[in-house]
Design a protein that fits this description.
- It is built from no helices and 21 strands.
- With 161 residues, the protein is mainly beta.
- The mean pLDDT is 93.
- An eight-stranded mixed beta sheet has the order 3-6-9-12-15-18-20-21, with no helix packed on it. It has a six-stranded parallel beta sheet with strand order 2-5-8-11-14-17, with no helix packed on it. Strands 1-4-7-10 form a four-stranded parallel beta sheet, with no helix packed on it.
- β20 and β21 form a beta hairpin.
Length: 161
């Protein structure tokens, strides 16, 4: 692995981590996780074994990426953004397969936002801080609130997403 990993992080040897990815203190990366190049996993993050992160993904502190969640290239997740992968969780009762959640290229998830399982957040979309996303979000749209809803205009930024 050609990635700077803080000595207080735990990265399982069977996790895949791309070159240039930084893993900070208190971060946990489980066996089977796939993380691309040049990512930044801030302190106290977790990437579960069935999760996939593309290239240049940023996870700010307190973000947990569970089995079934895919974050494509250039995705930003603000502090304590929350992903879920089971609509009917019960203690010690795992589903045969977790629901798939996809956050497409260049999308941003604001601090404290909650993304319910099985959804797609479109390319370049912007999810506001504290939003609770209960439906798919089309590419380029900005959604805020609880439940999250579209607000006017496009989320397109200087990078063209």
């Amino acid at each position: 692995m050609d990635a700077p990993i803080h000595p207080a992080a735990h990265v399982h040897p069977d996790a895949e981590i791309g070159a240039g990815t930084q893993v900070w203190q208190g971060a946990v990366v489980l066996a089977g996780a796939r993380i691309g190049r040049d990512c930044n996993l801030n302190a106290h993050t977790l990437v579960e074994g069935g999760a996939v992160l593309g290239n240049r993904v940023t996870l700010k502190c307190g973000v947990y990426v569970w089995d079934g969640v895919v974050l494509e290239d250039d995705v930003f997740c603000g502090p304590n953004a929350t992903f879920t992968n089971d609509r009917r969780p019960r203690s010690r009762m795992r589903p045969a397969e977790f629901e798939r959640t996809r956050v497409c290229r260049g999308a941003s998830i604001g601090a404290g936002a909650v993304i319910l399982p099985g959804l797609t957040i479109g390319e370049g979309a912007m999810i506001g801080a504290g939003a609770v996303v209960t439906h798919d979000v089309p590419a380029g749209e900005t959604w805020v609130g609880n439940p999250a809803r579209r607000i006017g205009g496009s989320a397109t930024g200087e990078n063209g997403y």
